[in-house]
Design goal:
Blueprint lengths: L1 E3 L3 E6 L5 E5 L11 H19 L4 H10 L4 H10 L2 H6 L1 H9 L3 H23 L9 E5 L1 H5 L1 H14 L4 E4 L5 H11 L33 E2 L20 H12 L2 H6 L2 H16 L4 E5 L1 H18 L6 E5 L4 H4 L9 H10 L7 E5 L6 H12 L3 E5 L5 E2 L8 E3 L15 H20 L3 E2 L2 E2 L7 H15 L3 H10 L4 H7 L8
Parallel strand pairs: 1-4, 4-5, 7-8, 7-9, 9-10, 10-12
Antiparallel strand pairs: 1-2, 2-3, 6-11, 13-14
Helix pairs in contact: 1-5, 1-6, 5-6, 6-8, 12-17, 13-17, 15-16, 18-19
């Protein structure tokens, strides 16, 4: 048995009952070829290359994005506080990077495959002589869910032990426990349940980016986000019914305010579309509510449009901990915003959208300044039309709708938050439409990962091809639930390239 999941080990048994075990000593002493070993090896390779070249490699950018961290320093702190399982989960990112040609990831996986195969042959060598027939059975989530890695281990095994038989374990190992339980008590009475086969644990300092001279915009007047709203001066004395009506009426003014910025919104969609078409990325930057809304929009793009998590990303002032807790001082860190842009490897193909309700968040401006220096296209979304910008730091596009003050003074999670969500919805939805991710008003690249979405996929195929329900479902099953592949199979002429 060659086992690779969070940990790794090899267990063998000879016909005479002799047993042997290699590996399985835990992540501090071994686990060669495990998810933990792969992820740790990748991080070591990333920091090693950073030491040698002074440039943060693409694999490091992927890891920061996956963990919602902003800099190598934060990654070190995360590593010291992570569990074995936390680190092993990062192996998924290493496999994804390798499939996209990342050289560091490929080398880490080659080394891991070789180590696992060597442990397996050492185990077999304790049970029989080299050249004798041995069956190696692969199991564990890494080997079962990463076929390319399993093939690499198999290739190395066959080179080390010619003539061996290599196969995947047909069912989850837990079924062995079920079989043993049935043998121990075959006649047990009582209600019987069917087991579910699908069911199954002082830091070095990196130099920061100094941003002493980030030019900040000057406000010609007070930001509307900080002004008092005359219609809510007696908010604490209104009945609940009157307050509900007031809030809904106020939110109803937002579409008109955004429509007055329509030309700029169209330009933003065009910039984003062109960037994504050329292999660039859309990266949101924000603090507080603005940052969380960027995270929300970025996180919903992969399942909705079947794009890589790298395609639309978000940077949050304060990193991961600020997603669900208050970290108000992080928004004042302009150097932190610049460091985050460096950490994601922003380049000229990317679009960086800074989101700041008042338009004057230092973290956002540090990020926009660094993004502009990297040649990226920059967009500012804010709700303060009173700002004046210095030419050397003016974003390529500023969208600043006049939505007026909040009913609850300064609480930009209200109208400003709603307006931000509307704008981000427009940016990604219409960019994906332009990229051919939508036919008519149907999501032809949706990932049908659950029952509801599979039913939706069937309806989409029926709408576009005229197929009956069962033939549509059969076509999807035959094409691994890819709507696009089904449409191509049916030679659907309106399918965009």
């Amino acid at each position: 048995m060659v086992i690779s999941g969070t940990g790794a080990s090899c267990f063998g048994r000879a016909p005479d009952g002799t047993e042997a075990l290699t590996g399985g000593w835990g992540h501090l002493l071994g686990d060669r070829g495990s998810g933990h070993h792969i992820a740790l090896g990748a991080l070591q390779a990333v920091f090693g290359q950073f030491d040698q070249t002074g440039r943060w490699p693409a694999l490091g950018q992927r890891v920061l994005r996956a963990l919602q961290l902003n800099s190598p320093n934060e990654l070190i702190s995360w590593l010291h506080g992570s569990t074995k399982g936390d680190l092993a989960a990062l192996a998924i990112e290493i496999f994804a990077a390798s499939s996209r040609g990342d050289v560091l990831a490929k080398q880490v996986l080659r080394d891991a495959a070789a180590g696992l195969a060597e442990n397996a042959t050492v185990c077999a060598g304790r049970l029989t002589k080299r050249g004798r027939p041995v069956e190696f059975v692969f199991t564990g989530s890494v080997l079962l869910k990463q076929p390319a890695f399993a093939r690499a281990v198999k290739k190395r095994l066959l080179a080390l032990w010619p003539g061996a038989v290599v196969r995947l374990l047909a069912r989850e190992g837990a079924w062995g426990a079920v079989r043993i339980a049935q043998q121990i008590q075959p006649a047990a009475k009582g209600p019987r349940t069917t087991p579910n086969p699908e069911a199954s644990s002082p830091v070095p300092h990196f130099p920061s980016v100094a941003q002493p001279g980030v030019p900040m915009p000057i406000s010609k007047g007070p930001s509307p986000t900080e002004m008092r709203h005359p219609r809510s001066a007696r908010l604490d004395q209104l009945s609940v019914s009157a307050a509900v009506r007031l809030m809904l009426n106020e939110d109803a003014t937002l579409p008109d305010a955004l429509l007055r910025e329509q030309k700029k919104i169209v330009t933003a969609v065009e910039l984003i579309t062109e960037s994504l078409r050329q292999g660039g990325r859309l990266i949101y930057v924000g603090a507080g509510t603005s940052g969380r809304l960027g995270m929300l929009d970025a996180g919903e793009c992969p399942p909705t449009f079947n794009v890589s998590p790298d395609t639309v990303q978000a940077i949050m002032a304060g990193g991961q901990q600020a997603l669900w807790g208050s970290f108000e001082t992080a928004e004042d860190d302009a150097a932190g915003g610049a460091q985050a842009i460096l950490g994601r490897g922003v380049c000229s193909k990317d679009v960086v959208v800074g989101i700041a309700a008042s338009g004057r968040t230092p973290f956002v401006w540090g990020a926009l300044h660094e993004a502009r220096r990297a040649g990226a296209k920059t967009i500012l979304v804010c709700f303060n039309p009173n700002l004046e910008y210095k030419n050397e730091n003016r974003p390529a596009l500023v969208i600043a709708p006049r939505i007026g003050p909040e009913l609850l003074t300064g609480s930009t999670r209200l109208k400003a938050g709603t307006a931000t969500k509307l704008l981000l919805n427009i940016f990604t939805t219409l960019a994906m439409v332009q990229l051919g991710k939508v036919i008519e008003n149907l999501m032809v690249d949706v990932q049908p990962s659950n029952s509801k979405l599979r039913d939706r996929a069937v309806r989409i195929v029926r709408e576009l091809t005229g197929k009956a329900c069962e033939p549509a479902r059969a076509s999807l099953e035959r094409n691994d639930w890819s709507i696009r592949h089904v449409l191509a199979e049916q030679q659907f002429v309106r399918l965009k390239k």
